[in-house]
Amino acid sequence: MKFPVPFRARLAVLLPLAALLASPVAGAQGGGAASTAPPTVTKITWLASDHAPQMKGADASGVTARVTTYLGKHWPTVQHEVVFANAKRSWQMIENGDEVCRANLVRTTEREKSAYFTNTQLTPPPQLIVRRDRLKRLPRNAAGEVRLAQLLADTSLRGALIDGRSYGPALDEQLAARPAASAVALYSPRDFGARVLQMLSLDRADYSVDQDMALVMAGNPPDLVSVPIQGASELVMAGIACPRTPWGLAAIRGIDKAYGRPEGAANLREGLMHWLTPETQAHYAARLDAFYRERAKPSRIDP
Fold first, then answer.
1. CA–CA dist 34, 206 (Å, integer)
2. For labelling alongside 278, which of 31, 77, 153, 171 has CA 20 to 30 A away?
3. Rounded to the nearest 10 degrees, how much is the dihedral formed by the CA atoms of 118, 121, 125, 131?
4. If you ran DSSP here, which 8-state letter would residue 299 be given?
5. pLDDT tens, position by position, 73-86
6. Model pLDDT, residue 24
7. What global pTM score does this model have?
8. What is the pLDDT of residue 187?
9. What is the spatial distance between Cα 136 and Cα 103, in angstroms, rounded to a whole number?
10. What is the pLDDT of residues 238-287, one digit of tens each?
11. What is the spatial distance between Cα 208 and Cα 129, in angstroms, rounded to a whole number?
12. Residue 134 near residue 157, CB atoms below 8 Å
């Protein structure tokens, strides 16, 4: 059969293309994304600042030591090493794509641009930690909550915050909007914030923002007290973060698999309850129960 010339010309182009598409080699070799095997995770360097040397025994271990101990049993093929780094440096390394992870990081939309997360804790919101003798000077509403924007504008009271740390979306927004002339100083301590609280006790600052956990880890200093903050009453999602790279995806999936079982959820619950007062546990009981029921199953982590 004879075909018109234009059809033969099109056929001359289509036949080689069809042969290429039908070839078993096409798409199976050459390093295509679909055929690239995920990297093997053999070691995770954990960046930590949640160490409380002033406390004794297990209480001094912090969240990271608890995580690495658990993963050592449930993901034993991976070597888990802890390196101390402050919050700002830790996040820089994650953004740089270094093969590191960090536990107990507040999960935000902005941070998800640079890191993969698996949720591990739904925690009560940070509160204002203030010197007890400055308590009457705080601007508060009828419910006793601190009006943070008004406090940040008061230059007669000195604030001390941790540089590079997220306190949750609601507080981050208020802190970022503070006046340029506010009396707030930023610090980069290597520990979980105990040194900032020591500054308050030494009267080098009047207030900071942190969780009740920080007061417990600091030994419950009698001269410091926590006060709720207006507009920041919601529970805060925290989790383990690894860099948004192929290695980070493989690491976070392995971590999530280890925790996505009943004993993983139980381990996380036990770790959090250790730091909460009975009143706080009772207040948030229903929401915490729902979270740990979901945490007892593997999460869906998309690339």
1. 56
2. 171
3. -120
4. P
5. 999 999 999 998 88
6. 38
7. 0.66
8. 87
9. 36
10. 999 999 999 999 999 999 999 999 999 999 999 998 888 676 788 788 99
11. 5
12. yes
The CA distance from 213 to 262, in Å, is: 25
d(CA 203, CA 208): 12
Are 38 and 257 contacting, i.e. CB atoms less than 8 angstroms apart? no
Say whether 11 sits in a helix, a strand or coil. Answer: helix
- Report angle CA 120, 62, 278 to the nearest 5 degrees: 70
* CA gap 270, 40 in Å, rounded: 31
Distant-in-sequence, close-in-space partners of 71: CB < 8 Å, separation ≥ 6: 44, 78, 80, 255, 258
As to burial, measured by CB atoms within 10 angstroms (0-12 exposed, 13-18 middle, 19+ buried), residue 114 is middle
Contact between 132 and 201 under an 8 Å Cβ cutoff? The reply is: no
Nearest-angstrom CA–CA distance, 191 and 299: 30
In 44-185, which ranges are continuous DSSP H helix? 62-74, 87-95, 148-152, 169-176
- Can you give the pLDDT at residue 274? 80
C-alpha span between 88 and 189 (Å, rounded)? 9
Q: Summarize the confidence of residues 192-204 as an average pLDDT.
A: 86
Contact yes or no for 194/214 (Cβ under 8 A):
yes
Question: CB within 8 A of 276, min separation 6: which ones?
Answer: 124, 212
Among candidate residues 285, 264, 261, 257, the one with its CA nearest the CA of residue 273 = 285
